[in-house]
Design goal:
- The chain has about 70 residues and is mainly alpha-helical.
- It has a domain at about 1-45.
- Helices cover about 50% and strands about 0% of the residues.
- It has helices spanning about 1-30, 40-45.
- The termini are far apart.
Length: about 70
C-alpha cells in the first residue's frame, strides 16, 4: 500500500510540474492561432465578448454608510 501511495504521489508531482508547467505552455506556443480555433458552427452559438476601455479614470465615490 505504501508503494502504491508513493507511486501515485510521484505521478501527481510529475504531472503537475513537467506536463502542466512545461509541456502545455510549449505546445500552446508552437500551435499559435490554432489554440483558439473553433469550428464555424460553434462560433455561431458562442457569444461575442468585447472589452471596452475607459478613456478617463472614474472618480472614487464616497461610501455613504461608512463615516469619513
Amino acid at each position: 500500500m505504501k508503494l502504491f501511495g508513493f507511486g501515485l504521489a510521484a505521478a501527481v508531482l510529475i504531472d503537475a510540474t513537467v506536463v502542466r508547467l512545461v509541456l502545455v505552455p510549449a505546445a500552446m506556443e508552437l500551435m499559435g492561432k490554432a489554440n483558439s480555433w473553433a469550428p464555424d458552427w460553434l462560433v455561431r452559438y458562442l457569444p461575442t465578448l468585447r472589452v471596452e476601455t475607459v478613456k478617463q479614470p472614474v472618480a472614487a465615490v464616497a461610501d455613504p454608510i461608512l463615516p469619513d
